[in-house]
Amino acid sequence: MALIYKILPRAEWIQAQAKGLFEGSAIDIADGYIHFSTGAQALETARRYFTDKHDLTVLVVEADDLGPNLKWEPSRGGDLFPHLYECLDCRWVRDVRDAPLDLAGIPQLGDLA
Which of 16, 68, 73, 89 is most buried (most C-beta within 10 Å)? Predict the structure, then answer.
């Protein structure tokens, strides 16, 4: 089982739940796919893109549930990142976790690996 993670503002998740579908954050929509990270990649993703953000949540998804529209593509440093080329059906989300902030303002996601 390969779990992947999506970090996003809690308000976006609440909106997605109302629709039953997460269409993506602004960067996802601009890039044409939903960005995910593996557990090993999540902390660096949080440091790079969410340090100044608050009230975040983390979606936990089983990669195999997403089928052929999930592509593993090279990104940061050549690492393969999971990218979903369709909207995320909320039923595919296995868990939703808070992304607490430490004193430096960086989400502590190291336990996701």
Answer: 16
Is the pTM of the predicted complex or chain greater than 0.85? Answer: yes
CA–CA dist 5, 35 (Å, integer) = 9
Domains of the chain, by residue range, sit at: 3-100
**Fold entry, domain 3-100:** ADP-ribosylation fold (3.20.170)
User: For tokens 């979606």, what's the residue?
Assistant: 59
Radius of gyration of the chain (CA): 13
Is residue 91 classed exposed, middle or buried when 0-12, 13-18 and 19+ CB atoms within 10 A define those classes?
Answer: exposed
Write the pLDDT tens digit of every residue in 62-82. 999 999 999 999 987 889 999
